[in-house]
Amino acid sequence: MTIPKIIHQTYKNHNLPGTYKMCQTEIKRLHPDFEYRFYTDEDMDRLMKTEFPEYYDKFNELPRMIMKIDMFRYFLMYKYGGLYTDMDYLMFNNFDMLNEKVVIPCNREDENGEPICLGNCIFASQPNHPYWKSLMDTLFTIDRTKLDYNTDKNIDGNVLGTGPLFVFAMWKRYSKINDDICVSKRSLFHPPTKNNNQYIEGLKKDGCYGMHICTGLWRNNKL
C-alpha cells in the first residue's frame, strides 16, 4: 500500500485570506494528479458526526476550535490517508514520499539533530494506520476541558494538548513498539521561515518540500 494521492486542507469557510489562496494555488499546481479535498467547519462537524459517531460527543467537548481542527486532521489521516497541510504551508516541490507508511516532519531539533518536536502543519499517511488511532483515542483518556487558555502560557498548553508537542509525545510512545513512521529532517519540511526570494529559491533547489509561513490565526481566535 502507498500513501493515496489526496490533499486535505481545512478552513472555517470558503473565504480564504490572500496568503491562504496563494498557498492553495501552489499545492494544486505542484500536484495535478492528486485529488484535492477542502473542508469547512461545517464539513468537519458533518463528517465527524457521520463517519466517527462514537467520537463525536467527546470531539465537541474540546474547548477551543483550534483543538478540534488539530484533531480533525488526525481523523482524516486515519480514515482516508493522503497529504495534509495547513492553509499557510507553502509548497515548493511535489510531495513524492508515497512509499512510506507515515511521514511526519521534525520541526525542532536538538544540537545533535535529534527531534524534540514534530510538526502538525504538514504530514502524510496511508489510511488506517494505528498511530493516528492512538491520537484519536486520547479523546477518551485526556480531559482537555479543564485547561484554561487565557494566557500565553496556556496557549502554549494548547500545543501540548492537541498540537505539535502532543504529536511528538504520542510518536515517542508509539516508536517504542513500532518503527514504521518516517520522521524527516527539519530541513525537508520545516526550514526557518524567511521572506527572502534568494533564500526560498535555494530551498527549492535543495529539494525542500515547503515552508510554514506561520500566520498563527488560531492565537487570535480567528479560526
From TrEMBL:
Any one Pfam family here would be Gly_transf_sug
This protein's GO cellular component annotations are: membrane
Q: Name one GO biological process term.
A: mannosyl-inositol phosphorylceramide biosynthetic process
Keywords annotated in UniProt: Transferase
Q: Which InterPro entries match?
A: Glycosyltransferase_domain, GlycoTrfase_DXD_sugar-bd_CS, Nucleotide-diphossugar_trans
A GO MF term: mannosyltransferase activity
Q: What is this protein called?
A: Glycosyltransferase
**Could you read off the lineage of the organism from its UniProt record?**
unclassified sequences, metagenomes, organismal metagenomes
